Amino acid sequence: MNYDRLTQKKQQLDSFRPLPLALTRNLEDWFKVELTYTSNAIEGNTLTRRETAVVIEKGLTVGGKSLKEHLEATNHAHALDFVHSLIKKNPAQFTAKDVLGIHNIILKGVDDENAGHYRSVPVRISGAMVVLPNPRKVLDLMDDFQTWLTAKHDLHPVAFAGEAHYRLVSIHPFVDGNGRTARLLMNLLLMMAGYPPAIIRKRDRLAYIASLEKAQLGGSKEPYEKIISKAAERSLDIYLKAARGESATLDNLDADDLLKIGELAKSVGETVPTIRYWTSCGLLEVAEVTESGYQLYAADMANRCKQIKKLKGERLTLEEIKGLLS
After folding, report:
1. How many CB atoms lie within 10 A of CB 145?
2. CA-closest candidate to residue 33, choices 49, 46, 11
């Protein structure tokens, strides 16, 4: 990880501070929607980016979406407001009660019995081989986590925030909401250090989850650290472009080139109906849906298509392929 490059970009951003109030508010509003949309999407929430904005900015409901999904959106937005209220603290003042406070907001109205409380039951991550700590150890592990969090350290701020996220999700102290709480904690630590919050994109979901599991099973932590580092750098770039007046809107600052379904089909030598069918089977992920209803795919779905074709050539069923790729 090139943390020196992150430091340099942070210094460049500092040279523009204080940013104009209108620009700051615009950036914060955009990040609130984007962080809420992506963090919830990683956990399976089906609200689109635009639907998320409608729910948290206008307080409207979206037809065909569950109450739980609406609550997950409004709760995350409120939790982000709570996180902003903690920024003036420093990590040495941070307590486990602050983590519980974030979690309490995340699950409010969704699971009030467990909101803001450590788990008392064993849990497993669906589809993962990681064995999570016994519930009897959670309180001691969280005490150790707080001791680590408030101790002096020499880590780069981005590395420190990423490590805090990794440690919290590895303890998995809650029945539900661990990932969202850990990402909010990570972003709180980044903002405390003067960095913008980092966005782990929906299209990076599989790589993000796989990198966490690899590290938790004793493998290299480098893939995970790269994902966090790149997420932090993207946010720095967004702020720098906005500070320089290089973009009129924020709508596409985070977007890589997305492929229309026909473009994806052509790139892998398949038909559009085949791509559409693989998507309906859960083998491919849609990165975005346009206002006109067109499905857009991230470039890495081309590699996924190639994997599917290879496994089909080995006479595996689509269900078997889905199991291998999940």
Report:
1. 18
2. 49
Q: Does residue 134 share a domain with residue 173?
A: yes
Tens of pLDDT, residue by residue over 220-238, are 999 999 999 999 999 999 9
Is 69 inside any structural domain? yes
Regarding whether 154 and 76 lie in a shared domain, the answer is yes
Same domain? For 239 and 283 the reply is no
Q: Which residues are catalytic?
A: 172
Helices then strands, each counted (H, E), the chain = 14, 3
Mean pLDDT of 138-167: 96
Helix axes 222-243, 21-42, angle to 10 degrees: 150
Confidence (pLDDT) at 326: 63
- Helical packing angle, 67-85 and 96-106, nearest 10°: 150
Angle at 174 between CA 169 and CA 179, to 5 degrees: 40
pTM over 0.90: no
* Three-state DSSP state, 298: strand
Q: What was the pLDDT predicted at 250?
A: 45
Boundary of a domain, candidates 243, 276, 309: 243
Domains of the chain: total: 2
Count how many residues are written for the chain: 326
- Written as one letter, the residue type at 44 is G
Domain holding 22, by residue range, is 3-243
Place of tokens 């199991």: 323
Residue whose C-alpha is closest to residue 165's, from 150, 178, 147, 152: 178
110 and 206 assigned to the same domain: yes
